[in-house]
Amino acid sequence: MEIKVAVAKTTRYAMEFCGDTCDIAERPQGGLSLILADGQGHGLSAHHTSSLVVNKAVSLIGDGTRDGAVARAVHDYLYAVKDKKVSCTLTVVSADLDTQTMVISRNSNCPVIIKTDEYTCVYDESVNPIGVHHHTKPVMYEVPMEEGMVIISYTDGIQSAGRKTNGKTADFKKILAIAEHSRAEDAEFIADSIMAYALKLDENKAGDDMTVVVMGVCGSNDAAVKIRKVNVNFPL
Amino acid sequence: MEIKVAVAKTTRYAMEFCGDTCDIAERPQGGLSLILADGQGHGLSAHHTSSLVVNKAVSLIGDGTRDGAVARAVHDYLYAVKDKKVSCTLTVVSADLDTQTMVISRNSNCPVIIKTDEYTCVYDESVNPIGVHHHTKPVMYEVPMEEGMVIISYTDGIQSAGRKTNGKTADFKKILAIAEHSRAEDAEFIADSIMAYALKLDENKAGDDMTVVVMGVCGSNDAAVKIRKVNVNFPL
């Protein structure tokens, strides 16, 4: 099998700093975790908040901390250092090779979509963001890792795209259709397509910071040697 | 401008765990850092060592720590927790937007190559790995960030490729030629080409863990919206 991860991220129009932060961490017991946070507000302060949250989560995951404890520890940390005053969403999607499951931990107002060859499922129960309420816990989901599985999430810049230009927001059915018509191998295409759809609604002037993350579980390829690859494009 | 980063990594033939670890961290004052470590030995213990080193470095860089202090702090940490008994190479390549320079910190037996439109330069002074000698410091280099700049480094699995199959090791001139005939936009191609060259010498049975890292400073593209992208392929 092969895990593919794709992230596409852009900053609110005319803003220098992005309040969304996303990172990928290797799990010491095998596998990858994709961490996505959207800090309260915009600009530099939101950027600092989400960076703080993601860096803490990356560090804990690197230590081998289980995902449920990561979300709790990061909440407690933000709650303490920002004195309960700053909220942040946090979504962690893990391909856990130790348990051969996908583990999802959500403290976000945005959904997580899981699509397999057999079913499509949307996790969007109401849950608090971290940082402001006492003893906040994540909503956790765990499903067996399957070839062909695609997991998608995003921040609310995607969800609310179009609000400023035409008063409507993104049509969730269209986002779902992109997922349903794509394969796990197309992780990059899925991320780019959802980003392109949102930017089109905002007429290329993003109304809010936008991030899309996609994780795909692909069948093994035929390469003679397994080569792990990371590619980053970072426009300044 | 746009920073492109490419990483290609493979594990020693028939080994489950890779002793090389590589990660990319966003700098809080702007820019990216590429961190590469090769832990002493092979397999799980080397994997743990290099993960420990890279995770510590990522965390410090995320805190805003300057690169020279990162290398020193990570050395002191490894030196303490492994009781001076375990060595690890550490190379950090940073695109520092705050100073508009590329900062390179080396504690490795492998070179760092810088290629610009005007010059090619190889940094390969002898320097200790971290973890075993009292108060180890990195060799530091700092050069102005320029469009067209390409920075390449790798671990010794690349350098020693071919030793087991034909008693010879990789021809550095060939690696340099790949750099000199490529552009900053081709970061992924450069990483893939150097990896392919090394694997060919080892007849597709890597004699050691191999990692190539490339950072390119490209001119700005014409896209209407700046989208930051990360793509990972993680074969299991």
TrEMBL record, chains A, B:
Q: Which Gene3D superfamilies match?
A: PPM-type phosphatase domain
Source taxon at top rank = Bacteria
What are the PPM-type phosphatase domain coordinates in residue numbering? 2-217
The protein's name is Serine phosphatase RsbU (Regulator of sigma subunit)
User: What is the native source organism of this protein?
Assistant: Pectinatus haikarae
Query: What phylogenetic lineage does the species belong to?
Result: Bacteria, Bacillati, Bacillota, Negativicutes, Selenomonadales
